[in-house]
Structures are given as structure tokens and as C-alpha cells.
Amino acid sequence: MAAAAAAAAAAGGLIRLPPPQSAAPRFGASRAPPLRWRRPGNQRRPRRHGLGRLFARSAAVEEAAYAEPEAALLEALLGVQGRGRAVAPRQLQEVESAVQALEALGGVPDPTSSSLIEGSWQLIFTTRPGTASPIQRTFVGVDSFRIFQEVYLRTDDPRVINVVRFSESVGDLKVEAEATVEDGKRILFRFDRAAFTFKFLPFKVPYPVPFRLLGDEAKGWLDTTYLSHAGNIRISRGNKGTTFVLQKSADARQILLSTISAGTGVEEVIGDFISSQNVAEFDLDILVGEWQLLWRSKTEGESWSSVASAGLKDFQIIKEDGQLKNSVSSFPGVNLSARGNICKTKNVNTFSVSMNEGAVQVGGVQFPLDTKGEFVMEILYIDNKIRISRINQHLLVHLRVANAT
């Protein structure tokens, strides 16, 4: 029931449904394989400095040929978990501002009349107003599932189809609605059927929902307030007041972050991502800021100092003078921290990390901890949002949450 309700809600309408009658290769193990991040022939790019000049726009976004305001929206959405379930107020404000900027531009006129609206769209962000049910809020926010909306208006049977994809190996649920174009922006829809498709079954499993008996609860409308001229970004608002941001195809960084959120196959995706990128040489200034650790590879028997240098499990702050602080709040009222210094070495994009002191604070009482150690950090990829590095046998992925400290 939860799956069907959420899939239906993803189109902008919310219906109340009655109750129904291979392991990825390891990276960062005892012997980490080489990661191909330099240019062919080991030729270095010209030396450049500064965050704005080095990565004013990530290569992934540039290759997707997004307009500047569209790229700004995608940048704001990087790191948002659960398609909006977990988002800091500052980041939410950035997303809303980017959405409003695109809506003000207008995009393709009369989007329902354009062939660009046709096809499969992946839901990457949605708001959850007070009218949304707990089922919708809970299910749409599950990162391990992917949610799509298929729009087909130029057929003898116009339809809007919401898809919840459990996984490539399990299958999906499709909730379908017959659609009618009201004007250049609005699509009217009425849900009329739903079915599960499982990979291990040779037939579909109908979901026993009495759509015809639901009346107005099975109806809704969806306004497209922005459709990009390249046909890769769509913003829609539904009759329940919910805003949806959808995308035709995700870029490499989005795939990486969604894989980290799902928690499976991360090492393989990191390897593919790094192999497809070119990284310029840079200095310490590109690292300055506050970073949140999203993922780290694991090894057996790792020491406290190794964990501390790797950024523990939460935040890392790097200052312009090379001071470094790693911290984590493991339990309410309990904070672990480690301090040290970071400086550039003679090797390309490699930094020396020296951890000097650590402490655990419980309430108002602080106890010292031994975190001394020397480590080498190699930057495998970095832009204004994402950092992938390797410390000893660990691979780490950080998200930049602030540019300066």
C-alpha cells in the first residue's frame, strides 16, 4: 500500500489506497588498485590556483550542457538526501531560490505542447507540504528506491505513469493514470491501474486498488512551471501544493551521491567516476572550508589515529593556515575531535597530514585522547562540492558544506 500511494503521489496527486486483498568489487582494501585520474600520457594540466578558477563549474555539469541557472539548481541539490527528506535550512533556501529563478525564466513555452516533455523523468527533489501524508513523506524519502515519472501525451492513450524502482534485480511498481492536457502547462490525470513487475516472475502482479470507487481521490493535476530547452530539467507543481524537480538523466556526481545514499556498489562507482575525470594540479586553498564525510572504505584493525585522520564520521574543517580539525558527535552530548595540520608535498595533489591532539567531550567534561600520527592524503578528485581522497588504505568522499571558515 505504501509503495502504491507514494508512486501515485509523485505525480502531484495523493490517493488513499485501501490495504491489498551481486557484490561489487572492493576498493581500498589491503592493496588499493591505482585510480586513473591523470590525463593520458601522464601530462599535467597547467598549474592553476583558487577554487573559483579551478572548478568554476564541474566537468560533469558542463558536459550535460545545462544552462547556468539549471546548473545552479543541480549544484544546490548535491548532497540533499532522500529527495528532500534531509536538507539543511540554508541548502533548502538555495534550492528554492534556484527553482524560483528557473520558473521566472519560463523555459519552453507551453511545455505540454512540446515533445521535450515526453519520456521518463527521474525525481531528484520534492517538497513535502502539510497536506502530504506520512506514507508519501516516508516512502519518497527512501534513497534505496528510485522514483521515475513517465509522460506520454502524444498517443491514442495519453498517460502519466509513476514508477517506484526497488532495484534492478527485484523489479518495480507502476501506478498509471489516464491524462488530459488542459492548457499549455497543466495536465489533468486520473489513476486507473497499478501493477508490480518482479524480475523473478514471468507475469505482472496487479495491485487490487478500486480506483473507480475512489472518485475525486484518484484525480489530480500537474503544472509544468519550467521545462528546459535541452529537455533535461523539469519543474512541476501538483494539486496538493508539492513542488517536484525531475531530470532526464543524472550526471556522474549525482550517480555517485545516490549510490552512496543507497549504500551498495560504492567502490565500483567511485572507480568509474575517477577514471572518467581529469583533475588539475592545485594547492591548499582548494581544500579550505568545512567538509562533511559522506563515505569511507573500511579496513580491519584500524587504529584510532587512522580513524581520526580520515575525518572520523562527521565534519572536517581546514583553515587557510593549514590547521585541520576532525569532529564527530557519536551520541547526544558526546563529541570526539582530533586536531592537526595539513600541508602540500612535492608530489602532485598530495598532502601531508599531522595529527597532534584529540579529545572526547562528555557534557561539560573533556578528556584527552592520543591521536598523534603522520599520514599522506592524495586528492583523487575535487570540485566546489565533492572531494574524493585516499589516506593510506582508505577511500573517502566528502561534501563541501561551507567554502570558508
Automatic annotation (TrEMBL):
<keyword id="KW-0809">Transit peptide</keyword>
<dbReference type="InterPro" id="IPR006843">
    <property type="entry name" value="PAP/fibrillin_dom"/>
</dbReference>
<keyword id="KW-0934">Plastid</keyword>
<feature type="compositionally biased region" description="Basic residues">
    <location>
        <begin position="36"/>
        <end position="50"/>
    </location>
</feature>
<dbReference type="GO" id="GO:0009536">
    <property type="term" value="C:plastid"/>
</dbReference>
<protein>
    <recommendedName>
        <fullName>Plastid lipid-associated protein/fibrillin conserved domain-containing protein</fullName>
    </recommendedName>
</protein>
<dbReference type="InterPro" id="IPR039633">
    <property type="entry name" value="PAP"/>
</dbReference>
<feature type="region of interest" description="Disordered">
    <location>
        <begin position="19"/>
        <end position="50"/>
    </location>
</feature>
<dbReference type="Pfam" id="PF04755">
    <property type="entry name" value="PAP_fibrillin"/>
</dbReference>
<feature type="domain" description="Plastid lipid-associated protein/fibrillin conserved">
    <location>
        <begin position="71"/>
        <end position="246"/>
    </location>
</feature>
